[in-house]
Amino acid sequence: MTAALTHTEQPASAAAPAGTGAGRSWAAVFTLAGFEARRLLLRVPMLLALSLYATWIGWRTLRPSDDYPVLQDADRATQSGPLLVGLAVLLCVNQAALRSRRRDTERHFAVLALSPWRRTVAHALSVVPLALFTAVAVTVQFTWEAVKSGAVGRGSPAELLTGPLTVLLFGAVGVLLARLASSAVAAPLLVVVFLLLFVAGAFPFAGRETGAAWLMPVVTTSGVHPVPSGLLGRPAAWHVLYLAGLALTVVLLAVLVAGGRSRTVQVAFAGALTLAVLGGVVQTGGVTAATTAARARASLTPEKDQTCVRRGPTQYCAFPEWMPRVGDWARVVDQVRALAGGGAQGRELLVRQRVEVRYGLDDDAALAPSTRPGQVTVGTSWGGNRVPEFSTAVAGVLVAGDEKAAGELCDGRMVTVMWLSLGRRPDPEGALRHVRLDDSLTGSAVVLSRTEPLTMTAGQTKVVRALLHRPFYGVVARVKAHWAELTTPGVTTARVAELLGVPGSVGADRCGE
């Protein structure tokens, strides 16, 4: 027995001073890391998470309504998916690090050149390939959006790094947890806690722009409508420094717990902790005074930040990042003008882009309608329902004179507005459904707008639908021939229906009927 013990212990004692050397020890670390990385990729939870992640990317990027992405939103849209991968990594790397304890093989490692802290490093390194895979997936997802012809704005490399760093951080937490607790239940419980915090929204500061919200791996502060990149005020670079420092701190803490208490590790731990604290403190400083002032200026006096270009009788003013959209707006304006009569086809219009960010990025309040004659508001979103909303705004100004008057229409002119708005749409009746708040095609309804909404009575809905089913050019001829009366304040819906050749009862002109 003594001889056997001596034979067993001899390689370990010889390995420490000169048996393999530091170079071979690190070579063994990298070999073990590669082995664990391959096993990690083949784990069922990991394969399931990667499949769901790929499906999530496909669902987000292949939606028809996403043909007009804003890149400063598209970069942040890459951050939620890696959370799922990170949670799977946390669970699987924790189980891998505990494998020797579960299978009672820990004592066999005593004959190897790899000490516990080196094996800890190997498990931490095994997460790197998954982080690189996530980085590739993030790049593909963002590039897919960036190459679309309707893309505007610019992305942030720091925002794109958040997803891969989240995977690294969760992997580091899984390794540390294995060194602190030998129970196989600890990691699943921690995953449940993270799901409650990040998915169910239980974190008390989730969605806010300041304070402790930035201590989370992913901070979603985007609102319903995109805003210029200069108004975001997100400390993305500091957040990346925080995540990188925190991930390195957690890994080095696991190494220290596993027995790697060399001077180098201690100094590295202190440096990583310093980076994490620095990034964490700076990023929680809130929105800067300069960003607050810029938001107020963009909300109240957007003309100070915008570029203008004239296309025929229409001037288009937009924030510089949105200037490529002018062509899309101009096509809609020209289509609406072509259906109008009288002097409306040559009337001067000002299409101005407007935002409201004085109260934060998540504010979804409707913009106040403009009282300036001929001004039409266009938002920062485009595609899908936003197109008929904009065409309705253009038609309303052509008929009523300004946005405020258009929002107060309660007579037969509403029929003219909706015909001008929808007449040239590829699917006019579908556009009518989508521009109404309740997605209906009968009865009264609220008509969506970036400013104050409009209203249609049941009779007006009936007349508009009838016009959309009649021969197109016949309706155009009637609209042009009776333009003056169709746009006269107080004209009834019944009279408009008579002028446009739509028989039947339409009821009284009462808003909300």
Structure, described:
α11 packs antiparallel against α12 (263-283). β5 (445-447) and β6 form a beta hairpin. The strands form 2 sheets. A 4-stranded mixed beta sheet has the order 1-2-3-4. Strands 5-6 form a two-stranded antiparallel sheet. Helix content is 56%, strand content 5%. It has 513 residues and is mostly helical. It has 22 helices and 6 strands.
Supply the key terms:
single chain, two-stranded antiparallel sheet, mainly alpha, 513 residues, 5% strand
Uncertain regions spanning at least 5 consecutive residues:
1-20
| Strand percentage | under 5%
Indicate the structural class.
mainly alpha
Number of helices: 22
SSE order, as H and E?
A: HHHHHHHHHHHHHEEHEEHHHHEEHHHH
Calculate the mean pLDDT score and round it: 87
Number of beta strands: 6
What's the arrangement of strands in the largest beta sheet? Answer: 1-2-3-4
Helix share of residues? 55-70%
Distance between the termini: 98 Å
Globally, the shape reads elongated
CA-based gyration radius:
31 Å
| Major sheet summary line | 4 strands, mixed
